[in-house]
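If you are new to this repository, start here. Below is one unmodified record pulled from the training split, so you can see the exact layout before writing a loader.
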Amino acid sequence: MNENDRMNNTQPERGWKPIPLPLKSLFVVFILWAIGTVVNLPNLIEYGLPLLGTFIYGISAASVALLLDIVGPMTFLFALWQRKPWAPKWAYAYIGFFIFNSTVAMFTVRAVLGLPQILAPAIVSAIFLVVIYWQRNYFKETS
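And here is the target side for that same chain:
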């Protein structure tokens, strides 16, 4: 690529530097959330977690936790870093499912888990969605 091609390049800048501060904050929180899930995995396997109104245990609980708390956020972070236009939709889908699952749990397993253990992650996830929606223009393709 010569100098003229570089100057006429309409590709948006990628990486850490151009990411807006609210999304940088989410980046750090998602990394910490994933680390927390890995540390808590033995408890999830033994004591289970709610999935659509029922408790699942063992490898099923670990799989759901890995999907919602590690694969989901890490896919979003990759898309954030690469400035992929599908990143917000991905976040809406997996975080939306997480909030939906929490809502179902509030009505089905609240007696077992307690309301704070259901509401706190759901409220934090809703805040994540608000931040991603607020910053959605960062992901727009430029032409």
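Two things worth knowing about this chain: The radius of gyration is 18 Å. Residues 36 and 55 are 20 Å apart (CA to CA).
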